[in-house]
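User: Could you go from structure to sequence for me? I need the amino acid at each position, not a summary. Structure tokens:
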């Protein structure tokens, strides 16, 4: 099953495609560049970006496939990237619109490094996230306990009394 949709980012259309085999979304690279630069010709900017940053050019050539998406009412092969690929491309865009996103990415990376040093932080973050989603305390507790079987060391950091009564 092929699913292609249009996503909106700050009133800009981003063409996307769901890859069932890989279980992930792909997004039009040119649409992302346009959304973060507001340029009339984002394709030219992308070409210059790839030329200026040869590592990025190689990265895009290796990791960003041509995916069939609607373009001008017809299905065409469009340069696309997964979320991971798009994050890498946005890091190279020099634009004031990209800066808040880059700061968010840096903060998320920093938080992930903290979680690696102290796994309890990830459980607390999950608990807070589930609470914001309206999950009950019982549901949250059950899900955190189920993690015990996946990673007993991390679980014991949060609930040592449940592992060692």
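Assistant: Here is the amino acid at each position, in order:
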């Amino acid at each position: 099953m092929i699913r292609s949709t249009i996503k909106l980012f700050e009133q800009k259309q981003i063409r996307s495609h769901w890859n069932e085999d890989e279980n992930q979304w792909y997004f039009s690279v040119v649409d992302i560049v346009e959304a973060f630069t507001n340029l009339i010709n984002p394709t030219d900017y992308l070409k210059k970006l790839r030329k200026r940053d040869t590592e990025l050019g190689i990265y895009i050539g290796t990791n960003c496939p041509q995916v069939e998406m609607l373009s001008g009412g017809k299905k065409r092969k469009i340069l696309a990237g997964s979320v991971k690929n798009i994050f890498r491309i946005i890091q190279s865009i020099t634009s004031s619109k990209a800066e808040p996103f880059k700061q968010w990415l840096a903060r998320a990376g920093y938080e992930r490094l903290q979680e690696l040093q102290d796994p309890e932080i990830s459980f607390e973050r999950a608990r807070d996230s589930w609470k914001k989603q309206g999950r009950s305390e019982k549901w949250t507790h059950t899900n955190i306990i189920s993690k015990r079987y996946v990673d007993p060391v991390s679980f014991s950091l949060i609930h040592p009394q449940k592992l060692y009564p």
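One structural detail worth keeping in mind: The two ends are 50 Å apart (CA to CA).
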